[in-house]
Amino acid sequence: MAQTSVNPAKTPRELVENISHQSIAHPGANISFAGKVASIRTCCPRAAASVLSLFHHLERPGHPDITLTVVGRECAHLFHSQIDWDWEKLGQDPAGGSGWYLPAWKSITASDVSRTTVVLISKLLGARDFGRREIMRLVLQDVLDHHGILGIHGATIGGATSGVFLSNRGGSGKSTLVAQALSRGLRTTGDDFLLIESKPPRSSSDFLYSYFSNLKIHPESPAAPLLNLSSIKGEEKALADIAPQFPRGLVDRHQIVALVIPSVGRETSLEPASHERTLKAVLLSSVRLTGMSQQLFFRVKSLIEKTPCYSLVVGPDPGEGVNVVESLLVR
Ligand SMILES: [Zn+2]
Question: Is the CB of residue 296 less than 8 Å from the CB of residue 152?
Fold first, then answer.
């Protein structure tokens, strides 16, 4: 990496300018998040490979709306010389832009006012950590929020264009249904975290967008044998990268034709669900992970009002559950 001499940045804005105006970061790739293009740049090829393991299916050419640079602990020293303030006392930058210190990651994030250019430097996270969904989700959450994109908890199962949205708390059998559906040639936008535009589109259709390229599943799920799983250190659930196993399995968005609250039970059955129950199921599971916002509340409410809602009990054979979901697709 070429080291250019720079005047140490005294404000977050200067840090953003120093890092973004010089080719000191490795160009990762342009990733399309719900239609907005984010150029993700990293400190080195290793960090780039980690980040791209999560988003490789969303790589798109095009002029970026957002530029995000992430720098991990292995490379942080290369950028230290650019920082001229106490990492732990960052505040609002009177000259525009903002910066904040996150003790849990020993990281600073600096950004311009519009969150168009964002830099994160961590003394704790390593290149490999940028390949973890929980970490990148938190890195991106605030940036995407600013650009009108919200995170929502759930999965979709569908065909090439339309799909059924499944949402409920963890352990309700979503990942099992998704894995089973993939093995039958159906498609998904993802099994856990999806993206949605904060403003409903003008057309009558609502879309949910893909976020991560892998699915997380309990190794004892009846659908686990259908997947090549890799274990996660310190976690019960395991990961499966979708694309290598199901090359056409991941789509970048689904037009939503039905909303389903799945749960595990003795016998497979489907019945209509009230708006109140559906709103509760979607919000409670999303809020635990993204925090509650008024925006998310109204967005989910509008999605529910436009979409037929059901609760689906899935018996011991997840294939039966997939049959029911498939029947909703062609209705
Ligand atoms: Zn690095």
Answer: yes
Domain stop point among 123, 147, 171: 147
Q: What is the pLDDT of residues 67-83, one digit of tens each?
A: 999 999 998 887 766 66
192 and 237, same domain (yes or no): yes
Q: Is 322 exposed, middle or buried (0-12, 13-18, 19+ CB in 10 A)?
A: buried
87 alpha carbon to ligand 1 midpoint, in Å? 19
Ligand 1 centre to CA of 217 (Å) is 29
β-strand partners of 110 = 99, 119
Side-chain half-sphere of 179: how many Cα atoms within 13 Å? 26
In a domain, 228, yes or no: yes
Whether 16 is in a domain gets the answer yes
Residue 172 and residue 296 share a domain: yes
Question: Which residue, of 99, 115, 147, is where some domain finishes?
Answer: 147
Of 44 and 20, the structure prediction assigns the larger pLDDT to 44
pLDDT at 204: 77
Those residues whose beta carbon sits under 5 angstroms from the ion ligand 1 are: 43-44, 47, 72, 74-75, 127
Mean pLDDT, rounded, of the chain: 87
**Domain tally, the chain:** 2
CA of 120 to the centre of ligand 1 (A): 12
